[in-house]
Amino acid sequence: MTNTITSDSSLSEIILKLVDTNKPFTDILIEESEKIAWYVPFGFKNIDADVIADRAMIDEFLTMMVGKDWEARMSIKGAIDFSRPLKNCQLRINAYYTRNKSRISIAVRKHALEAPPISSSPLSLATKRMLGFKSNGLFVVTGATGSAKTTTLASVVHYFNNQAKLNGAFKSSHIVTIEEPVEFIHERKNGIISHKNVGVDCPSFASGLRDALREKPDVILIGEVRDRETAEVMLQAGESGHLVLATLHTSSCVSAISKILSFFPEDEQASVRQSLSSSLIGITSQVMLPVEDGFVVASESLVNNNTKLSELIGAGKISDLQAYMEKTTADPKSDGSAETLNSQLYKLFKEGRISGELAVKSSYNPMDMLEKVNPK
Description:
The protein is of the alpha/beta class. The chain folds into two domains: 2-112, 2-Layer Sandwich (Beta-Lactamase); 118-339, P-loop containing nucleotide triphosphate hydrolases (Rossmann fold, 3-Layer(aba) Sandwich). The protein has 14 helices and 16 strands. It has helices at residues 11-19, 55-65, 70-77, 125-133, 149-162, 205-212, 228-239, 253-262, 269-279, 307-314, 321-330, 341-350, 356-362, 366-373; strands at residues 27-31, 37-40, 43-46, 79-85, 89-98, 103-112, 137-143, 165-166, 169-170, 174-179, 192-197, 219-222, 243-248, 280-291, 294-303, 338-339. The protein has an eight-stranded mixed beta sheet with strand order 11-10-12-13-7-14-15-16, with helices on both faces. Strands 3-2-1-6-5-4 form a six-stranded antiparallel beta sheet. Strands 8-9 form a two-stranded antiparallel ribbon. α7 links the parallel β12 and β13. α6 (205-212) runs parallel beside α7, α9 packs antiparallel against α10 (307-314) and α13 packs antiparallel against α14. The longest helix has 14 residues, at 149-162. The model has no long low-confidence stretch (mean pLDDT 93).
């Protein structure tokens, strides 16, 4: 495979040849004056080719992808983000400075060209059911970078574009996505899709979201909530008859709620909690795990389909939410409104798909996980 890559190969040729292999990987990392590496199961490894990425290779690649002014554009923000579709996948590319701007690196992330159906997503059955009949409110997917959050939300958009029904008939929805960059292009099916690329179609997530509210949307996807302004408009949209889908960077469902609250000063958090208690549909938290044949996503879920969860959030008892999730997960008569990450990791461990060590390392509650995989 990579023995066809030589020192004369261009960066675009190298990337295309890596993409065309059958070996599972998620990312390619190109650093000036270093060997090229890719992220295969169980970590980054150098590709099997004696190639050093030099400035000329990087300049040629970025000029072809972005334009001759790529360096001037990158000097303003320190990085450039863009996506490129290929025949069988899509690449999200980030070029950035390192070592006091003396070197340039490029991170390439591979993901599917088309959004997967919601049936193949890691969303819990209770979550899918809630999304199936809720037409307004807030649904959040959280997790670390590279945990397939975007892919999961793309599957939800795919559902509303292809399958969503109202009173037995297909419902045509206006779906507005606000991303940086746009990763999945959804062709119009039963829904009307408006893709907004932050930095091109709108200056920021917050401004794109405010504009979207004037465009008669049914569903709004926010690629990432990073600041108070975006969080504030997000909550307003969820309470005013729109279905809002958003991502955060946190390690659990409970920490996602804490993160949203942290965007606001303490004297405003009581009001924000009330908004969340009434508008939150649910939260899914994801981790990407390496397995022998590729990668698998484990997720935990918190679905707001009973008064108990709303009461805890509204009363500010955020610290009690984890205990609520664990109790609900352990209850054999549970309605599925909560499933902890540890329960899903343990399931993968029992199936022999991941090791006990990986289960512990992947958990935000490692001591509890350790007791599960190594009972005394």
